[in-house]
Design brief:
four-stranded antiparallel beta sheet; about 270 residues; alpha+beta; single chain; DNA-binding
Length: about 270
DNA sequence: CGCTTTGTTGAAAT
DNA sequence: TATTTCAACAAAGC
């Protein structure tokens, strides 16, 4: 499940491989045409033909290939992967889009669940309008968090999953950050103290930074690179996917419930609801 | 079969 | 009326 650290891992992996490369054409399989949102392969080809990749950036969970005068933005959703080696015969049915470069090599977008999307746009206004601050940027401060959420009656987990508040947090890292902060996922935002906002802020930063340093979390299906490299943050998980196991910081047992329609893991002892 | 996953959408509830 | 929650959806694997 690629969240910010996984997308950043992919970005760093792809950057040296794709920088300066020139697009020739875009392609979609005949039986599935939704991966390129809103445009046909032919239209996309017209838009990107001859354009070179100036830089690779990331915003939240979005990976952006910046061309001279436009952008090709990828959202991996749950199972999207980007690579350059020719896919095996049996994985070809999961290729939802591919691009040909000027040296006749390719960029493949493989997506088993088919929720991933690629968007062409002339600017990134649409992205900036929908996303909140980057958790590792200077704009992300305890004051921002409290000002944005302090009055809300929403549960803290739902609020943190909202991409317009902090961009890039998903199910894994919200559960982990809340555990580190000692906050119950169903805690109402309005009941969180100044001290806890401070703690939550640092918990988010520390968790995301540590996950990036370990190339993300390979829980079920996240791999990056041509060699199917896995992220190493799994070993650092305190609650996610550890249902019934002892909490790593106290004697509690991790429980799994559902909050905001998402599987939610927490330790009832160090994350009490008050 | 039913549950899981992300993010958007629109309806329903508070 | 505004905020918040919820169900549906898109798709396939286990």
């Amino acid at each position: 499940m690629p969240e910010l650290p996984e997308v950043e891992t992919v970005r760093r992996h792809l950057e040296p491989l794709l920088l300066g490369r020139r697009f020739v054409s875009a392609h979609l399989p005949t039986d599935y045409q939704k991966a390129l949102s809103g445009i046909s392969a032919k239209e996309c080809t017209t838009l990107i033909y001859g354009k070179t990749i100036q830089s690779l950036t990331r915003r939240g969970k979005y990976l952006i290939l910046n061309l001279e005068d436009s952008h090709l933005t990828f959202h991996l959703r749950m199972t999207g992967r980007i690579f350059q080696t020719e896919p095996e015969e049996q994985e070809k049915k999961h290729i939802t889009a591919w691009f040909t470069l000027s040296d006749n090599s390719h960029i493949y977008f493989k997506d088993v669940r088919k929720f991933g999307r690629i968007l062409w746009s002339s600017d990134l206004k649409w992205l900036e309008e929908k996303l909140g601050v980057e958790p590792l940027s200077a704009e992300f401060t305890p004051e921002y968090l409290e000002a944005k959420l302090g009055e809300k009656k929403q549960r803290i987990k739902s609020a943190l999953l909202d991409q317009s508040v902090v961009a890039g947090l998903g199910n894994i890292y919200v559960d982990e950050a809340l555990h580190l902060a000692g906050l119950h996922p169903e805690q109402s935002c309005s009941g969180i103290s100044r001290a806890k906002w401070l703690k939550l802020h640092s918990s988010i930063v520390v968790t995301i930074q540590a996950a990036i340093d370990l190339n993300g979390t390979t829980f079920q299906s996240f791999y990056f690179g041509e060699e199917e490299t896995s992220g190493e943050f799994v070993s650092q998980l305190n609650v996610f996917g550890r249902t019934g196991k002892p909490c790593k910081t106290c004697h509690g047992l991790v429980v799994k419930t559902k909050v905001a329609q998402r599987g939610t893991h927490y330790c009832p002892v160090c994350q009490p609801l008050r």
